[in-house]
Amino acid sequence: MNPKNNLIIALVIAGIIVMSYNIDANPVEFVDGLPNLAIVVKEMTDVEPDLFVTAFWSMLETIEMAFIGTVVGVVIALPLSLLAARNLNNKLIYVPLRGILAAARTFPSILWAILFVIMVGLGPFAGVLAIIMYTIGFIAKLQYESIEAVDSDPVDAVNSIGVSKWQLIRHVVIPESAPHLISQILYMFDYNVRQTSILGLVGAGGIGFYIINYIKFFEYGKAAVFMLVVLITVLIIDFVSVKIRDKYIVKAQKGMKVEV
Amino acid sequence: MLLKKLIKKSMPYSKLSTINTKIIIHMNDVWASYDAKNYSLKGITLSIERGTNYAIVGKSGSGKSTLLKLINGMMNPSKGQIKVDYQTPNMNKKQFRKKMSKIGYIPQSLGLVKNISVLENVLIGALPRIGRLNSLLKNFPKYEIEEAKKIIKLVGLKGKENRKTYTLSGGEKRRVAIARALMQKPVLLLADEIVSELDQVTAKEIMDLIADAQKRLNLTAVMVHHDMKLALEYANRVAVIKEGQKILEIGIDGEKIIDFQSGNISQQEIMELYNNESEK
Ligand SMILES: Nc1ncnc2c1ncn2[C@@H]1O[C@H](COP(=O)(O)OP(=O)(O)O)[C@@H](O)[C@H]1O
Ligand SMILES: [Mg+2]
């Protein structure tokens, strides 16, 4: 630790205190508020069991929306990523395309959802469209980056066989960048389930619709039940995707044989 | 015939006419560089006859890999002429790309696609013969798949057709690279130090494999070696490269070694000469 580091730390701490004051963040309120949580938990135990069934079905709808959005988004993103990769195309193609993709992911999906609600009306379809847009922007970026990072040895060697550009892409570039794709898609699905859970806030379908309505009518216990269902679902999806990733990707990196 | 033999003996082989139909590769005063300042090859002149096993030997950084890249058109010379099968190599020219489909090039790094199977890697050698739609669908004709399997067996990888390439040993990977090159039905094979990192037994097996394929297919092989002994054992002709220049070229005919500058020379003399030169 040198004096310069100490100074930086002191400045950061001072900054946080000043900013907390500015935004009215008071730790005392946090402590005082803790008993309120206990009230919500008690309310949760009072709800009728039927509510869990509703929560389950609306969660299922949320997952379906996320699934469709992820799959369709990935299917559209893959060809776009080939066009956006600098090592495969010229500037005239990849520069504008990268701009569009950047726009697609700079907008959070909830803002896309507002736009699509305006376009196609309330309901899950608007939500699915929002998820598709965000997925395209995100997966295309991850993919064109892994395409650009593909090992140049096999590319050069196969290119020297005199194959066509599309043969090179199909037989070298895609297989070399594909292993990352599985983990990227799993991550994206996981992320999309969480995103879809809040799209209901703007009327774009999914479990968030119930949550926002119960909160509007101060039925925090019921809202909490739905939030609990989201939490459990996300944990399960996370657990499963870690398992899948371990099975296919970690093994592949260690150079072990993967059994399918 | 007699006259030709006399000419061969009395002058460097490289001075022979380029119109000679037996010659597949001809280089005349070739210079090459990666940047404006330094030349990696400085005035290389050589001719390679069809069917030869031509070895290029030299220490690391002497320009051996650069020489192969020039022959394959992956690099263009800054000065001088190169003809490979009557054409000037240039990988960006459509006409030469056709020729490249018949040149098996095995780089030092092998250039295999790691995440696909042995069979899929070998089939890549057939791609120039496959139509656009079928190659996009990875839909190879049955006879090409049979051919690939035959070659895989030939290189000693029978039963490993479906193994992912990254799971193979170094020696096995080299066999895959050779199989991919053979799948091209090549007339010319360029191999860059593919046995340098292998143990002696495996190195010999791989060299025998290439010698065998050469005989069967009347293939010309240009092989870069680190090890002079291996070159003397397998090649008909050895060029020694030092700092971008060819300092020695010898022909080998059974036990007899001919130095084109000083006449007959013994294997021991060559080894001494080579060791001295490369230590300087
Ligand atoms: N891609 C490159 N960029 C710049 N210089 C290079 C490159 N490849 C090789 N060189 C230089 O060219 C010279 C010859 O290299 P190379 O042909 O690879 O030698 P060898 O194969 O005999 O070891 C070396 O000085 C090396 O540093
Ligand atoms: Mg080299």
Task: Report on this structure.
The complex is a heterodimer of chains A (260) and B (280). Chain A is mainly α. Chain A contains 10 helices and no strands. Chain A is 83% helix and 0% strand. The longest helix of chain A has 35 residues, at 50-84. The termini of chain A are far apart. In chain A, 34% of the residues are buried. Mean pLDDT of chain B is 88; it is low at 6-18. With 280 residues, chain B is α/β, with parallel strands linked by helices. The longest helix of chain B is centred in the last third of the chain and has 18 residues, at 200-217. Chain B has one domain: Rossmann fold (3-Layer(aba) Sandwich), CATH 3.40.50. The A-B interface holds A 151, 153-164, 166-167, 170-172, 175-176, 178-179, 252, 255-258 and B 72-74, 91, 97-101, 103, 105-107, 109-116, 120, 124-125, 127-128, 130, 132, 135-136, 138, 163-164, 166-167, 184. Bound molecules: adenosine-5'-diphosphate and magnesium ion (MG).
Task: List its traits.
A: 260 residues; mainly alpha; MetI-like fold; 0% strand; globular; B: 280 residues; Rossmann fold; three-stranded antiparallel β-sheet; binds adenosine-5'-diphosphate
